[in-house]
Amino acid sequence: MDLVSWTLSVIDQIFSTGRQGKGDPSCPAGTFFSGYTMDSWQQWKIVCLTTMSVEDAEDVYIFGFLITGFLLFGAGGYLTYRVSSKTWAAVQSIPKLPAMVDGICRAINAQAELLKRAKPQAGYGS
C-alpha cells in the first residue's frame, strides 16, 4: 500500500510542478497543465488534463466491450471454420467409404487365412 500511495504522490507532484512558459495560453477551468506536445506544424502546444467524468468512463467501457465483441466474434468465426472444414473433409470421404471397407475386409480375411494355416503347424486344433 505504501508503494501505491508513494507512486500517486509522485505523479501528483510531477503534474503539479509543471510550469507554463510566458505567453502560453492558460488551461480552461477544471483542467490543469501537464506538459507540452508538438503539433504537425512543428509548434509546441500545451497539454491540459482533467479527471475522467462518469460519461468518459462509460465511453471507455463501451469501447472495451466493442473491441472484446470483435475479438470474440473473430474467435467464434475461426472455430466455426475449423469445425466446418473437418465436416467437409468427412463429407468428401463418404464416396471413398466402400473402398475403405473393402480394403479392411481384405486385410481381415488375409489375417484369418494366415491364422488358419498357422494353427495346424503349431499343433493347435485339428
SSE topology sketch:
Elements: H1 2-16, E1 32-38, E2 44-49, H2 54-93, H3 97-122
Antiparallel strand pairs: 1-2
Write a short abstract of this structure.
This protein is mostly helical. The chain contains 3 helices and 2 strands; from the N terminus they run H-E-E-H-H. Keywords: Membrane, Transmembrane, Transmembrane helix.
Written overview of the protein:
The chain has 126 residues and is mainly alpha-helical. The protein has one domain. It is built from three helices and two strands. The chain has a two-stranded antiparallel ribbon. Strand 1 (32-38) and strand 2 (44-49) form a beta hairpin. The longest helix has 40 residues, at 54-93. The radius of gyration is 38 Å and the shape is rod-shaped. The termini are far apart. The model has no long low-confidence stretch (mean pLDDT 80).
